[in-house]
Amino acid sequence: MSERLIVERGIGEDRFAHTKGDAIVEAWVERAGTLLQGHVYQGRLTRKLGSRGEGDIDGQTILIDPWPAGLTEGAATPLQIIREAIPERGRDRSAKARPVTPGSTDSPKEATDALPLVPRMPGTSSELDIIGWTELIEEARTGIVAFDGGLLAIVPTPAGITIDVDGALPVDELARRGAIAAALAIRRLGLAGSILIDLPSLDGKAQRQAAADTFDAHLPMPFERTGINGFGLLQVVRPRVRASLLEQLQNRPVESAALDLLRRAEHAGATRTLELRAGASVADWLTERPELLQQLKERTGVAPTLKPHGKDPLWWGDVHSQ
Predict the structure, then answer these.
(1) Which residues of 83-108 are buried (b: 16+ CB within 10 A; e: fewer)?
(2) What is the spatial distance between Cα 192 and Cα 190, in angstroms, rounded to a whole number?
(3) Phi/psi class of residue 70: alpha, beta or left (left: φ > 0; alpha: ψ in -120 to 50)?
(4) Phi-psi bin for 160: left (phi > 0), alpha (psi -120 to 50), beta?
(5) DSSP 78-109
(6) How far is CA 60 from CA 56, 65, 83, 250, in A?
């Protein structure tokens, strides 16, 4: 079955989908202004904190570990991002970087700007939509993932992500299918860090091991996990280098809604009029960023109008075009 990477360069964010056949197996977004994992930027050292410290890249505070040898606060130096900034409930986790040693082989990760733009004719469905991008975004927004015979309920927290497996199947079959669904969702949605999966309780050690082996078969390395205990709990740890789709959409709801509205407006096929309606918070966010609306005009050839609408300030809105 063929695999490929689809890239869609949007207004305010680029979207990436690793596909296998006609299904998305892994996806992520890169929003404008993000310091990207693996890339090297010129930074400034601002505060030394023992063997680590803080720095600044383009006005963004970053963590630096370790502090560059021989340099003092205020010095300029190249820094490589090893973890992007991650939005969490109540606060954002700052990006983390390490110093780039002069003369070393450290180099920027291959820029995603070099990847091809997915061609699309105005007014037609994008290739991402055809293979299920809209449904994927709904999974990330709600944290609800359906599978044959049950549901996953996924909740991101600062301490980690919880995945509850629920359904009406016999417990051994529900555990097997739930383990598969959880593994696929973890990869597809980019879940990382500490993940706790609540499978149905299984009596026998052999059943628990079978469910764990099934999980392993559907989630590529790298990850570490515990065994499934008698309560059905399985803990998984994956490297956390960027925000998952859940964290992007649920912890930055206004920004996510606004960028999705721009995407739908760009794809609407307007030739004469283009009206965007959205909740007050979403409309205000866009109003404060006229450059994004200007990009929409340049891409569609139609000047958009924007109207706050509805009772829910976070409403994702709709598009009216002719």
Answers:
(1) bbbbbeeeeebbbbbbbbeeeeeeee
(2) 6
(3) left
(4) left
(5) EEEEEE--EEETTEEEPEEEEEPPTTSS--PP
(6) 5, 16, 14, 22
Bond prior to 66 in cis (omega within 30° of 0): yes
pTM: 0.90
Question: Torsion angle, CA of 292/276/279/264, rounded to 10 degrees?
Answer: -70
Q: How many residues does the chain have?
A: 322
- Candidates 134, 138, 149; CA nearest to 181 is 149
Question: Residue 8, Cβ neighbours under 10 Å: how many?
Answer: 19
Q: How far apart are CA 290 and CA 292, in angstroms?
A: 5
DSSP string, 126-138: -HHHHTTHHHHHH
Place of tokens 């998305």: 24
What CATH architecture does domain 40-99 belong to? Beta Barrel (2.40)
CA distances from 148 to 22, 145, 166, 169, 202 (A): 18, 10, 11, 10, 20
Under CATH, which number does the domain 247-321 receive? 3.30.2320
Q: Which of 75-79, 89-93, 276-280 shows the lowest per-residue confidence on average (mean pLDDT)?
A: 89-93
* Upstream peptide bond of 222 is cis (omega within 30 degrees of 0): yes
Distance from C-alpha of 262 to C-alpha of 281, rounded to nearest angstrom: 15
What are 8-37's pLDDT values in tens digits? 999 999 999 999 998 999 999 999 999 999
Query: Which of 193, 143, 198 lies closest to 175 in space, CA to CA?
Result: 198
Both tokens of 166, joined, read: 């629920």
pLDDT in tens, 236-267: 999 999 999 999 999 999 999 999 999 999 99
Half-sphere exposure of 60 (CA within 13 A, CB side): 22
